[in-house]
Amino acid sequence: MKHTAIDLFCGAGGLSAGLEMAGFTVLAGNDLFEAAGKTFVQTHPHAKFISKPVEDLTVEELLNETGLKPGELTVLVGGPPCQAYSVYNHQRGMHDSRATLFKEYLRIVKGLRPEWIVMENVTGIYSIGGGEAVRKIKAELKALGYEVEDAVLKAEDYGVPQERRRVVFIGNRLGLPISHPGPTHGPDQAEPFTTIKDAIGDLPPIQNGEDPGKIPYLDKPATPYQALLRGNATTIVNHAAPKLGQVNINRLAHIPPGGSWRDIPFEMLPSGMKKAKRSDHTKRYGRMTWEGLSCTVLTKCDVHWGAYIHPEQDRAISVREAARLQAFPDSFEFAGSKTEQYVQVGNAVPPLLGKAIGDHLMRMLSVKNKAEAA
Which one of 10, 82, 295, 301 is the catalytic residue? Predict the structure, then answer.
């Protein structure tokens, strides 16, 4: 039986890629971000990409593009833009128009009547409006006939070499039990955490600001993770580093692996940071360690924001290194400017987290299939 998916707010297609790894057929994706749409089209050739604001997307259009009838879609997935919910947005609140985009998702749920729904967002959604957004999501889905459960999933628990937290809502209208995937990686699991070296240790060295274009791999993959993400790729793309000014390069020279802004001589610190307490800004100007996990990959791997300095080379991580830390296959060639490429990577659901969700959905779907066969 073919299990189908449609991905709203799909971006470059990280969640779609994970669902496809789990055996789903992604029929369509929708997003407004043009560069992300180009990436999605290149990497999901069997899916239809619909480029427009979700407010303008109609149920009829989705049905026509996919050949489905209401009730036939297996799962509708999506992550409404998270900026309004993020702890990094100090102006967040239900008054932010982006905080109501989940209503558009609900409108499409009502029209498509998928068997299952999956929504993901940042953990800040729990505190916005005193939990108002979460209560509304669950109450409105219940009114449409869906029972929903939410949980915080940690990307590193599923093989992603990064500390990343996401709230995942899973629901169905079938009356089936709902649960979330259990951890597969970590000290108490069958597999250890995937380290930064496991993820990017095979990528060729590059200079600050360098963009070598398409280049060959230097060696065979050294870890199963590298082999998995290489797949059938024969060249490395998007291995381009941002250009840091000389003043920052001089600062980086003082930062050891695991170090941060505290290792920079006081007189070399940015003026604003000279006033900071030693307990503040713990990730700023952080240099990664080979055996550690990455901090959360954001839409701009700026050394001023977090630990985005390469473990050995005096530069910020490249787009491809950020993509590896997000568990994107090397076959993903990100379109657009370098800035747009970082945004696509940072906004995405890590494909391996998407795969864990997809695998778990498949297990829950098997309950229905067995019941129907009995």
Answer: 82
